[in-house]
Amino acid sequence: xxxxxxxxxxxxxxKVYAGPIQEWLKREIVPQADLVIGGPPCQxxxxxxxxxxxxxxxxxxxxxxxxxxxxxxRYFILENVPAFLTSNQFRRFRNMTxxxxxxxxxxxxxxxxxxxxxxxxxxxxxxxxxxxxRDLDFPGFPLIASQYSSPDGWRQLHEVLAGLDEHVExxxxxxxxxxxxxxELSGAFRSDELHSGRRYEDISVQRFKEIPPGGxxxxxxxxxxxxxWRRHTSGSGDVMGRLSWNRPSVTxxxxxxxxxxxxxxHPTEDRVITHHEAARIQGFRDDxxxxxxRTAIGKQIGNAVPIPLARAIGEHLLARF
Length: 321
What we know:
Shape: globular
CATH class of the largest domain: Alpha Beta
Number of helices: 10
Distance between the termini: 33 Å
Number of domains: 2
Radius of gyration: 21 Å
């Protein structure tokens, strides 16, 4: 609901259906379209999740496929995590475009693209699947600009966070409400209104202070380590990790505001990055507006495709029209 409200706030009334795609397909007339773009939920495939083969979200791509069938586009795009390529669902989707499958008039190619190679200050690898009607040639994937062709040329964190106050004292969002689809939600807030921190326990602040630039939980003295960290001396080096000014960010996930979820500590301040900083890393403008609680907005930011990558794909396909 909050994500739909955010979309409407930025892109206009009447352009979003506030409900599950299953209900949309039942209740609405699917319009004809030249291009269909979708990103079925990836949590069921992500190696960072439970990778539950029975996760119902794993099957939402089927409704995306139904949409393609009804909209009869010239091209379609699907985005997901790299693990989607090795899933049974991917094989089933491929089979729908073969033989007597429901999408037999289409074919597609899939490739893992890194957002950092398209101008995002973030290392974020995603499967981009580009499909086309069999009467058309495959459009290919967007080319990587020469300045981003190697890690030495990738945009660094300091470039996208330039101008923001490093020291943050505000912890609360403005008291503002908006009505959407019969519900009252928090917002709307500009990205630059989300440059606020959190209230931390003393133990958390002590831990932050012990972690050097580029460091992580392994740099903590035993007295500040959680019991589980003492028992597990190996594993992810990103947990309670500190970002570096002169490198791209790690992937911005939906819970980037929790340091135990990854490398999300500010490069120099003893805090996690703010929602505003995360939005900038994803490529959103400072005047982009968000609706929902801090948790809901965090999910929207983390689930988004980085703007530079989305723009590169969009401009590449636009040249075909």
